[in-house]
Amino acid sequence: MNAVGKMLIGLHLGNGYGSQSGAWRMPGVDPKSYTSFDIRVKQAQAAERGKFQFIFLPDGPGAVMTDIETESPVFNLDVMMTLAAVARETQYIGLVATGSTTFNEPFNLARQFKALDIMSHGRAGWNAITSSGEDVAANYGKRIPSSQDRYGRAHEAVQLIQSLWGSWGKDAWIHNQNSGQFAKKDQILPINLQGKYVGSRGPLYIPPSEQGQPIIFHAGGSPNAHQLAGRFANVVIGTAFTIEDARAQRNAFRAAAKSYGRDPDEIKYIAGLMTTIAKDRRTALDRRIQLGGSSLIQKFEYLQKMLGIPLDLSLINEPILELQLENARPSHYPRSSNALKIARQGWSVLDILAHGVIDYHPVIAGPGVEVADHMQAWYEAGAADGFWISPDVNSDGIDAFVDHVVPLLQERGLFHKEYESKTLRGHLGVPDQYGIDPRV
Amino acid sequence: MNAVGKMLIGLHLGNGYGSQSGAWRMPGVDPKSYTSFDIRVKQAQAAERGKFQFIFLPDGPGAVMTDIETESPVFNLDVMMTLAAVARETQYIGLVATGSTTFNEPFNLARQFKALDIMSHGRAGWNAITSSGEDVAANYGKRIPSSQDRYGRAHEAVQLIQSLWGSWGKDAWIHNQNSGQFAKKDQILPINLQGKYVGSRGPLYIPPSEQGQPIIFHAGGSPNAHQLAGRFANVVIGTAFTIEDARAQRNAFRAAAKSYGRDPDEIKYIAGLMTTIAKDRRTALDRRIQLGGSSLIQKFEYLQKMLGIPLDLSLINEPILELQLENARPSHYPRSSNALKIARQGWSVLDILAHGVIDYHPVIAGPGVEVADHMQAWYEAGAADGFWISPDVNSDGIDAFVDHVVPLLQERGLFHKEYESKTLRGHLGVPDQYGIDPRV
Lengths: 440, 440
Known about the structure:
Chains A, B: Belongs to the NtaA/SnaA/DszA monooxygenase family. 2 copies of one chain form a homodimer. Chain A is of the alpha/beta class and about 450 residues long. Chain A has 2 domains: about 325 residues, TIM Barrel; about 55 residues, no CATH class. Helix content of chain A is about 40%, strand content about 15%. Chain A is built from 17 helices and 13 strands. In chain A, the strands form 3 sheets. The first copy, chain A, has an 8-stranded parallel barrel, surrounded by 8 helices. Chain A has a two-stranded antiparallel ribbon with strand order 5-6. In chain A, helix 2 runs parallel beside helix 3, helix 3 packs across helix 5 and helix 5 packs parallel to helix 6. Chain A is globular. The two termini of chain A are about 25 Å apart. The model of chain A has no long low-confidence stretch (mean pLDDT about 95). The interface between A and B is large, with 69 and 68 residues.
C-alpha cells in the first residue's frame, strides 16, 4: 500500500510559534513555546489528525538569532530531541529532520537517525544537506569548505550512513531465548568504507526498523543538489514561486534520478507553501498585518525593486495607481510576477505586502478553499508531488489547515483519507530497505 | 535544599536487559528490550519510584557486539534519544549520559545536552569523557589521538560547552508579548573561544533551564581523569573493588578539585555496585549461575591467576581444599582479595565465580540487607558519596533494589525519603549555574 496517486503533505515544525516572525506575540500563543516540547508534540498531533504524511524540521545551527531582541529564533532547540518527543506521542506521522553532513560525524548521524527510526517504529527520514553559512561554520570554529568539498563529503557521508543503516541483514536479529542465539553474526557485517572525506568500519549496532532504515530527503536547488538528491533522495523540499519554476525544478530532480539509473518516480518533489487561513481574504490580510508589524514596512524598499517602480511610503494604505502599474517591470526576482498580479488586483501597498509577496515560499492568505485551489493547480500541473505547509501561527494555523483545507482536498480525491501504512516509506510509496542498496 | 548528608544513588540504564550478559534470556525478560524505548522508560520510572537521584547511561560507540551471536550489545541504541524518551515520562530523576569529547563536535554536544536540560526541566548531566578505544575510532574512520591530545581537546571542549551553555544570562529571555521584547540581546553574548583543538563563536540559541545548565560528570581513574574531573566535574563514577581503593580514589578527586581552587565537597565520588537480590545467598547464587551460563566457566582460568593456585575444572562444584587455600597468594589484580575471602568461606569454585568476583564492579549477591550493609560500610568509611547500581537483570532487579534495599537505607537514615528538588543540581546539592562560571 502506498500513497501513489495522491498528493503528499508535510508540516513545517520549527520554533514552536509558526513561520511568521511575529507569531510569538499573537493572542492564544504561549510565549514560552520556543522551549516547550509539550507544544511541539501537540502540533505534531494536530498534523497527524489531518493525516499529514510527515513533519519536517529544518535546521541550521548558525546565527538564528539575528533579531533576538524582538524575534524568536527560527529553528528548534534541537531537531533530534524534538523528534524523539514527538515519536513517543504520535503513531503514524513521518518524522524528518535536517542533519548537515558538513559538521557532523557520519557515524553519529547514522546512529541517531536509526535510533529515531526504531523509536518511531519506522517513521524516520533524514534531510541530508551541506552547510554553506559562515555563521554555522563559526559555531564549529571552522570555515565553510568549498562547494566541491562540501558536496564531496556529502556524497561520501550519505553512502556511508546508508551502509551503516544496512549493516544488519533483515533477519539478523534472532533474540531466541530458548536457543540462546541473539543474532546471526554472519548477517551483521562491517562496512569498511574509507573515502576522501569520511570513513567508518562499522557495523552500526542497531537492527532494522519496521521500514528497514530511514529514507533520505534533500532540500536545495543547485546543480549540486540535483546530483546529491538524484543519487540518494526519495523526497526533495523545494522553493519555487511559480508553477513553471516548480515544474522545472521537479523535472530537474527527476532527470537527475534517471541519470543515476533510478525510476524518476522514486523522487518526490515537495513545494513549500505558507498559509494564513481565515474566513475571507480581508480577515486573513488583517491577521498578517497584525503578525508582520513593522517588519512589513521594512519590506517596502524591496517591493519597489521587485515591481521596478518608485512608491511613496506615505501612501502605503492606498492602491498603486493604474498609471504607475503600467510602468511596472517585474524584476528578475522570482516573486515579482506574483507581486505585480496582486498589485493589479487593486490592493493597497500594505495589503500587497500582507499577501506575503516577499516570503520564503508562496503564501496563500484567505479561506481554506484558496489554499486547496492553489495546491490542486500546482499538483495537477505536474509542479509538485506534494506540499510542505508552513502555517503563519502554529497554535491555530495547523488546525485551520486540517479543518478547512484537508477535507476539501479529500473531497476532490487529491489527498488520502486515512493512513495506508504505519511507516514513512509506506506513506511515500517507497519500498522498505534492508541491507545495502545494491545500486549504490 | 540539597542532598548533603545522605548517600546518592544512580541507576545504570544500558542495553535494556541488565548488566549480566545472559540477562536477555532470563524468564520474564522481553527479548526485544534492546530496541524498546517503552522498557527503558519503565525502568527509569522504577528507579524514580525508589527516589534514585539519577540514571546514568554509559556509551562507547565501538565494538559493542563482540559476541553478538549469543550476547546483547552492552549500550543503548543512542543515549540521547533514550534520555529524551525518559525525560518526557518522568518528573524528578536526573538524566545523565556519556558523550565523548574525542569524536563529537562541541557545539553539537552543547546543543543536545542543553536541549535535554530544557526538555527535562533541569535534570540533565553530561558525562564528559575521552574515547580511548581503537574500535571506537574505527567507526569514525580515524585513529585514537595521543593521551595528551585527547585530554587537551577534552579540557577545551568542556570549557567551550559550559560557555555555550552559559551564553544566555539568567534573565535574558523576556518573551513579553505586550512590549514585544523577546530577549535582552545584551545578555546573550558570543563566546568567541578558539583553542588548539576546538572553537566556537556562539552564542548557543537556548535559554537557561530550571537549573541553569547541565552538570558535568566524569568516569575514569587516571591522573588525566583526576585533572579533568577536578577542574570541571561535580560527580565522578568510579571503579573500585575495596573500601581502601575507593577511599584513595575519592581523595584523589577531592585533592584535584582543591588544586583547581574548588571546595572538595563540590565533587561527589560514586562507586559502582552490581546487585543480584534474592531471598537468600543460595538463591542469589543460583540465579547468577543461570545468568552466567558458560561465561562463568570461561572465567575459571582467570580465577586461578587471581588466587595464585592451580584449580581442577572437574572439581568446579567442590570447595577449594583448605590445604590449597593456605598456598593462595592474592595477585595484584584488584579483585583478588575479595575472591580469596569468598573462597575461604567454603563455597564451591562455581559458587565463588557466581559471587561475581570477576566483574566490572563489586557484586553483592544475596538478600537486600547485604546490599544495604555494603553501601553503609563504604559510605561511612568515606569511600563513596553514593553508588551507581547495575542490577543483574533490569526487569525485576530494579524493583528488587527499590523494595528491599531502599527502605533499609531510609530506615538507617542513609538515604532520602523524598526528592528535595526537581532538578539534578538540587538532588546533588550543586548550586544552579547561570552565565559563565567566573572560576573557569
